[in-house]
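ok so I'm stuck.
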Amino acid sequence: MEKQWKRSQEELLGELQSSMSGLSQREAQKRLETYGYNKLQEGKRKGVLQVFAEQFADLLVVILVIAAIISAITGGLEGTIVIIAVLILNAILGTVQHFKAQKSLDSLRAMAAPNARVMRDGQKTEVPAAELVPGDILLLEAGDVTAADGRILQNFSLQVSESALTGESENVNKIDTPIDAEDLPLGDRLNMVYSSSLVSYGRCVVLVTETGMETEIGKIAHLMESAQEKATPLQRSLDDFSKKLSVMIIAICALVFGLGVWRDMPLADALMFAVALAVAAIPEALSSIVTIGLAIGTQKMAKQNAIIKNLRAVEGLGCVSVICSDKTGTLTQNRMTVQKVYVNESVWEAEDAASHEAALASLVSESVLCNDGIINGDTPVGDPTETALVAFCRKIGKDDTKVRADYPRLQEIPFDSDRKLMSTLHFRDDCYEMLIKGAPDVLLARCTSIMKDGKTMPLTDSIQEAITTQNHSFSMQGLRVLAFAKRILTENRPLTLEDEQDLTFVGLIAMMDPPREESAPAVADCRRAGIRPVMITGDHKITASAIAKEIGILRDGDKAIEGTELEKMTDEQLREQVEEISVYARVSPEHKIRIVRAWQDRGHVAAMTGDGVNDAPALKQADIGIAMGITGTEVSKDAASMILTDDNFATIVKAVANGRNVYTNIKNSIQFLLSGNLAAIVVVVITSLFGLPLPFTAVQLLFINLLTDSLPALAVNMEQPTGDLLNQKPRSPKEGILTRDFLQNMSLQGMLIAAATMTAFYLGMQINDGMACTMAFATLCMARLFHGFNCRGTRSVFRLPSNPYSIGAFFIGAALLLLVLFVPALHSLFDIDNALTMTNILQIIGLAFAPTFLIQLLRVIKGK
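replied:
not stuck anymore, here's the structure
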């Protein structure tokens, strides 16, 4: 149904063929068959076997499987077993990770109300919420969770918390009359209620208009399904690298095999050369090293109040160039706080109020008496605006409990959204005082006098104009303003609406949900790090802009727009203007996804923070979704890839710095693995070209790749950050791992290690083929262990901070190599010639150390 807020009750009842008596049970059953159950649909999920099988859908894995088969056919059963074991272990790890993924829709389903009170056959009855249908008459009262979307037919002081949908903490005062507006943001549809919202005060009668997936919460569920998780820059780089490496391996293996056959090499030997090359080229430990490196980063971040759900998001933080942040509860404190007071024709700052208690005493007492909010200990109970007044009373040193005990409430007229006023009666100062609070424009129009310095004076036009000007000034600062007045009555009697006339104006109290203390410094850090902060909120533009200016998000030249303006923009127009807009107000979930996508289309890596259900689709669409751990809903936490346990925007900045360090470490560890693999490839290709014996067996290469290589690579991931990471600009998401500098360094280092290994192979050949293989294997292994120190960073090891893990990795790797070389029981498995002499051992150590010595010498000469 279109624009339900604009249509009359009679029109809606007629279209849905319903009445105030509700549907008949028979008609409700018929509609249930037509519309379906009032619950969110669940998409088909992948089974364990399907997910497990998908782990093998990678070209590098396929090449290894083929290598394992060839190894088995040619008699290398040990190599086959090792390769298959490694592949199965990786597949198990991948499957387990998949089933730890987001459960956003499950959390959305859990929010559904279990039962609902409706009118059926003219009688009040309770039915399962899942059986609600359009046309039902739904009865709601304080404490109920709304079970479907609907139009309010009768309103009795209804206040609803829609924070889960709009992200705003203030209760919404509802009405039951049509609203004459064509385009209306969800937060301004005051005559509507929505599924999952909480009734915090009053009661109402509602005509159900939408159920199930057609509700606003259902639309969010649709968005959750359509929002695509974005691959991180590292993930894209690794995928691209894997494809290129796979093609290169296939081409070189085919070339080596063809060359062997052309040289009349036995088919089995030619195949074994190809298998050795494949195993040498594929960095089997790469996936595990990257995963462990990300896990190490995750542990560091957890200690700094950032929990990472998706490991890949760790390095993605290093690329973030835009943070789209929700306002309420993320940049602000999520609690209303009095900021300024206007009394005696003067403005007082809340911070200075305690020193002016005498001047403010009467106004503050009245704000507590004409108030239903309380604070139990440190826990506010009631409307956030009213509890803010109680907190302000305590702030200036008054006891709100004593004030209420001294002047108990005798009569009242509850707040009504139509008249926008609340009135209470108390016996105070030997007379009956009626205290009134409400919207300044409404209350001021009912005032004929003003209280100044304890005396009643006529309210002149000039004074009234001054009050109006001050109210406008407060509003332009993003403050919510309440006006207070009073009237003397002659007796204790029930109050009437006619009593709310001929009032004496007392003062104004202006409040807002203030920014967190850390928000402004965090925004400044973001800008220093080259990251653009953007505010996206369901609040009004004036309020949002005031907060954004205060913390540095909205600067001169930046734009602030509302959801209705955004609605009129095409996706192309939004893409063109998105970099000019810093604040989006009164937005819907669909708007948030459009904003995130527009930034992504401009080539940016976008992070989105939020805490409400309304944020979940955008959290999932964003490259990095960041949820609030304290105030965040379970839905937002499930949709996010990172959760802030302290709800502190500043924690994101620390996470970005960590993400940049994690990426640097991972890139260095990848360079370590690939330069070593390149050395092995070069040696295999050279020996094949010159018809020499096979320099390594598949098992030897797997030993190097999986054991002695893994330890230094892990140690590299433990490196601490150097320099000020936040002074660097975000890394371009288009920048792959295989940059020109990366390839140059990797090639130089790989060639040096290959030269040392070929020299050892040549020296071994002077004895026999077995010794040549053993010396080549030992030299390559030891050279790669030494090479771990080179890959700790781009500077000389003498200028890097200490890393005990690197030293430990070297000695453990060396110990494993010694076991293979000198334990006879392992010789047959690793094809080791047991005739190594002390001279051979010294040759191996000297040749293995030579590449590292040259690399470090070059860095010292360059002054690095």
